[in-house]
Design brief:
heterodimer; A: 196 residues; alpha+beta; Peroxisomal Thiolase, Chain A, domain 1; eight-stranded mixed beta sheet; B: alpha/beta; eleven-stranded mixed beta sheet; 9 helices
Chain lengths: 196, 362
């Protein structure tokens, strides 16, 4: 169980900027998250119209995963954040606040689960693999190496896409990376704390 | 190897395992009609816990449910070093955002920490929120953690409540049943929601059941509907069987998801048929408890532990005429049968599926 795995590629999104392996690949300047996401979608040439139906958390996770995945690979998705789907929960709550005139939207309600963003990624890349979404107060630098290592060493997956995807109002942050048998840095707590 | 050492539940049928199972064995359902109860929907069927839940002041209703379901388990198995609390929920304290503000209690780690602190866990609790597979996926996670020696004991606690938030959401999907839900029936017309908490202690120390295999594979098909071919569930069960070293027909029963929506139940029948499991007795426990969301997978596993321990298979409540396109053997009457291997499955929004196989030890 002490086998070492490695971080391969990683993608960070924050403050209107996307960085792939530390290099800027897109900047939007001052904008809301939704404005930023739309520009990034166009600039990265994603050509996936379903993107526009997604909630903000799914857009964030989808953008961050967009340069990291190989279609139809045996790549498990292990994501986490602090606020679960609270950003969309609050949007949904607005639609039912008025007891005299409530109008629940199925298109919003379906996104009131954090793992939906993993479903979106699985559909796009045809990943018949394990999805799990965890919720922690802070970036869990010890959790990811332990759990991703387990999935690979027990044969549940060949690679694992790990992601911290936090979204609440205009506060957003993604740090998504792929782990496998080869890579540029050991997948351990120390390295993650340095990178995050 | 990982074992189920202890377990409990807190449900509309009873505030502990033996009361719940006693009522279930008497054929009693926790589902009833609610009218003018102050909820958004003027009337609806649901399985809700009556009576006082909040016996511990300073904690939310759901935290009380989680604390009360864990209490006897922790009394019998005190928290030691290298023990983790793993909480499974979909919506946590979602009622706390009724005013539209992201209050502290709405954050799942805050809820889990409140419960963990109550029992003196030293480790920061983990929260798994993976739609309707959360409860049973949490058992798979706990099993892997103890197998690998990352923790010696994982206390899995799952809970969700019936709230305006989920009632209105399922109503918006036109997915709520017009009466008590009827899993696998020809006239099934949707989900009946329920609320419950369940707990299980997964440990390296030998226990009543061994966790023999698990699989959790996404459909990669649709975020709010299951795959027509049952692909993800098929692959999840196959992976669990392979790990357990079984072909499938050795299973003595399956506690399936059986939400009583047209598509879910049909998808499950297709997946079981593809695996040649047509003759294995199957139940859905949703007719007793409704769909308890993030609690359901663990609650139904816990009831299945009692079923296996007693060698008594529980009927699937609400079935009159089988209404799925593939022949499956849904349990209609209580059935005495010695049990060795049994499986719990679940599927959920986001295309997720999970299957976990247990072996009863002598």
């Amino acid at each position: 169980m002490n086998k070492t795995f490695y971080i391969q590629d990683y993608c960070e999104i924050r403050d209107g900027e996307i960085r792939l392996n530390g290099e800027n690949i897109f900047s939007a300047g001052e904008d809301t998250f939704s404005g930023f996401a739309k520009k990034a979608y166009q600039d990265l040439d994603l050509a996936y119209p379903k993107f526009f139906k997604m909630d903000k958390l799914s857009k964030l996770a989808f953008l961050a995963a967009s340069r990291l995945l190989t279609p139809e690979s045996n790549t498990a998705l292990v994501f986490a954040n602090r606020s679960s789907s609270l950003d969309t929960d609050l949007a949904y709550q607005q639609t039912i606040r008025d007891k005299a005139a409530w109008y629940p939207s199925p298109a919003v309600f379906v996104y009131t689960l954090p793992n939906i963003c993993l479903g979106e990624i699985s559909i796009k890349y045809k990943l018949y693999s394990e999805n799990s979404f965890f919720v922690f107060e802070n970036f869990p630098a010890a959790f990811f190496p332990a759990y991703a290592g387990l999935l690979i060493s027990t044969g549940k997956a060949e690679e694992v896409l790990c992601g911290w995807v936090e979204m609440l109002g205009e506060e957003y942050r993604a740090f998504v990376y792929k782990v496998g048998n080869k890579g540029f840095a050991e997948h351990n707590e120390q390295n993650l704390n340095r990178m995050i | 190897m990982s074992f189920i050492v202890d377990y409990n539940c807190f449900t509309p049928l009873g505030t502990d395992l033996s009361t719940t199972v006693g009522r279930l064995e008497a054929g009693i359902s926790g589902i009833r009609l609610f009218e003018d109860s102050g909820q958004l929907l003027p009337s609806y069927y649901a399985a809700q816990i009556r009576g006082e839940v909040c016996t511990h002041s300073g904690y939310s209703r759901l935290e009380n449910m989680l604390i009360r379901v864990l209490e006897p388990v922790i009394a019998r198995n005190p928290v030691q070093e290298r023990s983790l609390l793993l909480v499974s929920t979909t919506k946590g304290n979602i009622r706390s955002i009724a005013a539209g503000e992201p209050v502290n209690d709405a954050f799942l780690p805050v809820m889990a920490e409140n419960v963990a602190r109550h029992f003196g866990f030293r480790e920061t609790p983990w929260v798994l929120s993976n739609a309707c597979v959360s409860g049973i996926l949490a058992v798979a996670v706990a099993k892997r953690l103890t197998d690998a020696g990352i923790f010696d004991h994982v206390y899995v606690a799952a809970g969700d409540e019936v709230t305006d938030f989920v009632l209105s959401g399922f109503a918006g999907f036109q997915a709520l049943s017009s009466g008590p839900c009827k899993p696998y029936d020809k006239n099934r017309d949707g989900v009946t929601l329920g609320e419950a908490a369940a707990a299980a202690l997964v440990s390296k120390a030998p226990g009543l059941f061994r966790v023999a295999g698990d699989g959790a594979i996404n459909d990669a098909n649709h975020i709010s509907g299951p795959s027509r071919t049952g692909e993800g569930l098929y692959r999840s069960i196959r992976q669990a069987l392979t790990e357990a070293g079984l072909n499938g027909p050795e299973l003595d029963f399956i506690s399936a998801h059986g939400t009583a929506t047209e598509y879910n139940d049909e998808m499950e029948a297709i997946a079981l048929d593809r695996l040649g499991l047509n003759q294995v007795p199957v139940n859905s426990l949703k007719g007793y408890f409704g769909h308890t969301l993030g609690a359901s997978g663990l609650l139904e596993a816990v009831i299945s532990f009692e079923s296996a321990r007693k060698g008594l298979l529980y009927p699937s409540l609400g079935l009159e005429t089988l209404g799925v396109s593939k022949e499956i053997r849904v349990i209609r009457e209580p059935e005495n049968r010695p049990v060795r291997y049994f499986m719990k499955t679940a599927s959920g929004f986001g295309g997720c599926n999970t299957a976990v196989i247990f072996e009863k030890l002598n």
